[in-house]
Structure formats: structure tokens, C-alpha cells
Amino acid sequence: MLKPFPFPHKMLVSTVRWSFKLITVAAFAAFTMQDTVTKPDESRFTPVVLADNLDEPMAFEVLPDGSSYIIERKGALKKYDPSAKTTSLITTIPVNTKYTSKEGVSREAEEGLMGITLDPGFAKNHWIYLYYAHPTEKKHVLARWDMVDDQLVESSKKVVLEVTTQREVCCHTGGGMAWDKAGNLYLTVGNNTGNQQAAQTDERPGRSSWDDQGHAGNTNDLRGKILRIHPEPNGTYTIPEGNLYPKGTALTRPEIYSMGHRNPWRIAVDSKTGYLYWGEVGPDANEDSEIGPRGYDELNQARKPGNFGWPWFVGDDQAFPVFDYATEKPLAKKDPKNLVNTSPNNTGLKELFPTAPSFIYYPYGVSEKFPLVGSGSRSATGGPVYHRSDFKNPKRPWPDYYENKWIAADFSRGWIMAITMNAQGDYQSMERVLPSYHPVQPIDIKFGPDGDLYILEYGSNWFRKSDNSRLVRIEYNGGNRKPIVAAAAEKKGGQVPFETTLSSKGTKDFDGDALKYSWKVTSPGVAPKTYSTENPVVKFDKPGVYTATLTVTDSKGATNSQSVRIIAGNEPPKVAINLEGNKTFFFAGKPIQYAVSIADKEDGSTADGKIKPNQVAVSIDYTSEGFDYAEVAQSQRSVDASTQFAVAQTLMGKSDCKVCHQPDTKSVGPSFADISNKYKSESGALDKLVKKVLQGGSGVWGEVAMAAHPALPVADAEVIVKYILNSTDKTLSTLPLQGTYKPEIPKGDNGKGTVLIRAAYTDRPVGTTKAVPAQTTEEMIVLRSPDFNAAQAPISKGVEMKALGVAGLGFTVVCFESSYIAFPGIDLAGIDSLDLNAAAQRREGSVGGTIEIRLDSPTGTLVGQHEVKVAKPVDMAKVMAELEGGAKKEGTGTTTQPTKPAPAPRNRMSQPPVHIGIQPTSGKHDIYLVFRNPQAKPIEPLLSFSKIKFMKKP
Description:
mainly beta, 9 helices, Cytochrome Bc1 Complex, Chain D, domain 2, globular, Neuraminidase
């Protein structure tokens, strides 16, 4: 939840005015073709994990045979072998991974082994280029080696280029590389400047490492740049024509293609247009202030060389004043069209090119211009532009729908976007690619020679190995798709002998093919059993762990399988949650009485005292509207079943918390244990930390700022913070087995969330050798808000859904004779009435009618009804006359104000709700709202409404 990985840190836009290149007729046709191509269904894409268990992977390259070279920050060069499905170490390059402050404190830096690329002629010359931090000298090195039989030939090493750096303070290294059709190599170089204030412009003596005017803004320095060189066979390089400054220009470096970058990251060259695309990570400010605008990350485009403005500008030319650190005051802002670098640390030209426009830019908060990018931590990564013609006979080319689109990722937010541009390359739109696939901090992304998209996931731990770091290949299937298999067991275990029904419910084929089912039940030392029916009944006589595998084959021969584990010899525990009163709704401020009981054939029960209360996980949480409570149960395997914080851990799994924090060890941010120890005894800590999660902050735990999360519901932030504050208190692993919970709605929440009451128990293994493992059973009751949106009724007939004319109010339900809506499984215990904002408006042609409340069907038991008559029209002439009479001589003392306030025009939003009393009802029922007026014509609406509220007895 802190600002994510500083590896990418961004600055964005600037340069000279664009001069547009002409697009060929063929390219234009390709651009326009994408508008007529249907978007492929997500089921046609399959993420396949290749190399895993990596240690800080940074970048990769894919060879024609599907093997991949992968580099890791600490210097390892590895190879993934697709035939053996193994990853092996080739060599370890000596690199520096630290920086040491003036005070002598050594800390992890972002640098190390940072970049890799293969020569365009690699198949013949075997040249591989690596970009790394020299182990002892303050410089970054681009070097070339021969790769022979997957061995780096050390004697072949050629140092191509060096970038002088400082190691006094962190950050920003770049390291992205790409080639154009002319054999020119592009290299991104980070600004290598300390993070201080919003932009780094410290001009005091001895502070050059904190002045980016001497790095990114300096035409005579390679840092904070995108370089373009032409490597030569002898290991040197020449300068191609058309860089930012011609070779020989005084006070400039000819290698510079573009400048004014904070941390340009992964870079790609559009093979059609020659345009550059890259991600760039911006400053950390959460909001605008006198020292500068809030920070933005950027996904950028360069159509020609230019100046991208850092450290004076970010986003759409939002300006940072040069900060006077001596007086601690901001000075004047620069002019983006007449940019002058007057810093004493500048060794280059003073007069710079005007800044170029940014392409896509977004802050921590929600972006109004690019809302789909989301909010929270950000680290724009970048990615490739897709062209089918870039691949020769690919096995699985991506579909034409993605032709000419930029496929870009964000390291922290974990999304992949397809960005559509018009024929000139201007931004048009973006959309998520594979929204169900959630890469864990994608740090490099590119297409391989086989046409597949490859994504390198750095993993959740910073500066150390992560269990979830991996290289993933996204395969597209344009033909027959494998069946989607769902396997389950009616009973997942029991004392022997017992029977269970195996279920294939949920199995489907996206192509509509006929399916054949085959089950195979296996266990070590037991003869396997096979079944050819969809849902066979299987008997288990011998204790042990069994695997029931369902294999489904479609009519074209494609197969897919899924397995379910069954434990014979151990009866699963029974978990029961008992509530007093209503079992569907919660009411704010009204206590909920609960009691949890556990019974297990082998272990005993909570009633007899053999199962102790601290062995049972009991939790109650209020979560915001829209929270998917099903994910809590689905994530049980990865969540400790003995914890009361399963909901919090599910919420954190969906957010960016683990980008910066770990439970017990420091990452880029403090561990949860450190936060708990610091704040758990502090009065008001909950509200304070919730505010920090939502608004961000800095200065408490070090240099890296805490990212703002303004889009995170306050209720969910509270659940997360409560977990963090209690993460060190093992006595709070569960609530009591019985007690009272009073729902309180967090300030700022709309109160329409859910209360989740969860209990879980894991029994003990069975047998002296514990050959029969433990079983876990979880029970969860979801209490929902009594406020309903009528348009969300799961069952409806004969009604119309009409968008309301007021933004944000959703839909209204228009009702006709004998139409109805229904909500299944509603407990009416303690409910004495329903309130609806219903009205029969004459101007809408409504004729009025009766609302009937019935149980279980449109003709079921009638438990309440109310007639809604046509609203009487308001005499607007009279109202206006009263208003004018009171205002005509206002202030003269000759006219008095009306004694009564003028009635407002009646409407669905302002008039009192329709109150429908209902008879006392027990048990859960499907609640039908039926609308009747036998005299109404079929085309005449009776009434309309949008809200329903179930009312509890006082």
C-alpha cells in the first residue's frame, strides 16, 4: 500500500513539437480493420506458468524454440528450457546492489543486473547484451558477450557504453532495451537522483545527487534519458542520424534520443511507425501543493526525439517550481515552451527544447481522463505494440482484434491494457486484457517469436526472493477450445465405509460440443476405480487420501481434467452458526446475538468441552457494498483457517498491500508487525491509519511514500487496518464462540455493505501415524443491508428498467398490470413493513395500482399490500404567485413573506415513501412484489420506484 516498487519511477512528458510521419495505405487499413473485428472471448486465452521460483527477476528474452533467458537483479543469468520444463543458472555477473549514504549507512538500491537484449542477428552471431551496475565503480555498463551453447564466453566481453552514476542515494535505473528495423539499439536510463520533495532541484553545494537538473535535465549527462546507438561488430557504437542533438553539438551527448525522464522503464518500438512506447514512473505526491502538483505515472509515446520535461514538469505540463532548500521556499515555475536550465549542477546547454505532450498519465487517485487505470499504488511498466506481421509462421498469433494496439502493464496495479490508437497514433481508448488474470507485479512484458505474450512477474517481495515470481506465457487459441471442467464431491470425507456422489456440475464447453465424462479414483496401495457417468456414486471402504479426477473430452478430441481430494477415515467436522432474530439483514446499531457450535466424530464437540474455543476461528466483519464474499471461501486454501482475519486477508489479496508490506519482514515499507507494535496501544490509531490508507502519507517509515487509495471503500480499509493492528496479538486469533456484535457503519460508508459472520474448524489427523489427514469445515452467514435497489431483483416479469435522469441514481422499475419482481431467500423475522419510493406520476402516464407482497410465488400467500394512487398535480401557478409575492418588495418592509413554505413539486425523490405493513412471517421465503390494476390497459404503466427498504420492528 506504499508507493510501489521504486524500480520504475516516472516522469513524463516533454519534447519538441511532433512532426507526424505518414502512414502507409496498408498500415491505415490495418488501423481501421480493428474496428470491425470482434473482441475475442477471454476463454480463448490461457496463462501458462513457465519458469517459477525466481529471485528478483528483472527482464527476459524469448528464443525461437520457446526457451527464454531471464536475468535477476543480484546478477544471475538463467535459462528456461521448454522441453525439460526446467530453469537453470548460466552464470552470475558481478554487480552492485547497494548504495551508501554520506553517513555511511548501506541500503539496498534498485540497481544490479538491470537489462538484457539479444542482437537482431543472434541466430548467427550469438551476441547478448547485458546492462548492469559495475560491482566496484560508480557506473552502469552496457556490455556484449558471445553466448555459445548456453554459456557466456567471458573472453568475448565487449564494453559498449558506460553511464557515470552516484551511489550516495537511491534511485531509478531504467534498463529497458529495444531495437528498430535499422539495427539501432534504444536504452532507457533512470535519473539516478535522490527522492526529496516533489521534484529534485537541490542546488546547494554538495547536494548534486539531489539535483535532477544536473541529471535528467542536463544535455551533457546520460542519466534520465532514452539513448539510441548503433552497435558495431567490433563492440563499439556509432551515432545514428536524427538523435536529439547532432554529433558535435557543444555541451551535449549525441547518444541522447530523448531527455527529461525520471525513470523510463520498459521500452518498445512500433515496427510500423517507428514510434517509441514506454512506461515511466512518476513522483509520489498524493495531492497538489505549493511545492508542486501531485505525482503522475505515464505510459508514453515519442514520435521523434524530444525533451520530456523532468524535473520541471509532469503529466500534461503540470509544473514544479524550483525549490530553494536554503530558504525552504518554492521559487518560480519554468515555462514549458521556453525551458531554461540555470542550475549550477548543469554542465550542458541552458536553453532546452520545449516539452512534448504526454500520452497517458494517471495519479494515485482516480483519473478522470483515464478512469480505467484505477487508483492506488502505481508503477507504469509499458509493453509491446502488436503487429501480426512481426512474426514469421507463429504457432499461436494473437487475434486481429489487437492489431496496432499497445499492450501495456502496470507493475503495482497488476493490470494489462490494450490501448487503441488512430491512424496518426493518437490515443483513442483502452480496455483491460484478460481481467481474470492478475500478474503479481509484472516487470517485463513482450511478445515471443511464437506469437504468445510473455509476462515476467517480479513477485510480492522487494529486494528478496518471492515464492510467486515467475515467467508466464499467455497462449491464444483461435480454434477448438478445451472443455472447462468442474469437479466436486457431495461429501469430501467420512468414516469408512461411506459413499459420496462425485459431481461434474459446472462443466461446460464454450464451443457447444458434446462431451464425454470419465472419472478415475486413485489412492496409493488401492486399485483404481473408473466411471463413465457424469455424477457417479463412489463407495470408500479403506482409510486414506483419494484423488478423484474427472477428464472431459469434447467431440473434436480436446480434453481437460480437474481433481478433487477425498479423505476416507476422517469425518469432516460440522460447524453451525446460530443467530437470534433475522438471518438475512443487519441493522446499524442493532446488536446481533450469535453462537457457534462444533461437532466432530473423532474430536468431540464444543458442547462436551473436548474442542476448545481457541481452536475455532470465529470472525465478524462489516464490508463495503459490492464486496464479493464468495472469495473468502474460495481463498480458504491460501488463508489460515484458524484466523479471524480471513476477510481482511482476502481484501489485501485483491489490493496492492503486498506490493510494499509483508507480515513479519520489512519490504519497501514496514512489516505489519512493525505497524502493529507502533500503533496498537495508541488512542485513535484505527481512524488515523484508515485515513493514511485512503489519503497516503510519508515521513514515518523512511523515504518511500505511502500511496493514497481514495477509491478503497472506507469500510474495507477499516477491516484491513484492524487486522494489521492485531497482527501481533495471537490471543485475538478468534472471537468468542458466542456473543454480541453491534454493526457500526464507518464514517463515509453508504451503509449498504454486508456483515460476514464466519466460523471454521480444522480437526485432527486420524490414526497413530496420522495417515488420514485433517479436515476443515467453514460456515459463513452473510447479513445484508435492508436497502435494496429494485432494478437488481434477480427475478422479474413484465416490468421495464428505465435509466433515471439524475446521474448516479441508477434505474427505476416501471410496473404494469400483473408484472412482478422477486428477491429469493429473504428472512422476514422481525420485519414489520417495507418502504418503497414508489409513485404514480401523471406526467409519466401512470394510472396507479396496488403493490402486493406475496410469499414464494406471484400467487403465493399475501402478507401485505398498498394502493398507490396517481399523485395530485401541484398548482405551479399558485406556487409561483406566492413566491413572487414574497420577493417582489423584499427589503422595503411593504410585503410580508408567505406564512407557509411553498410546496415543492412532488417527485419520487422528495415525497414520503410508500409504507407497506406486512404480517408476521417466519422462515426464509422468496419475496414477490406483484403489481395489480385490472382496469389498466396493457400499455399503461401503473407506477414506478427504484428503492426498497425492509423495516425492522422497534
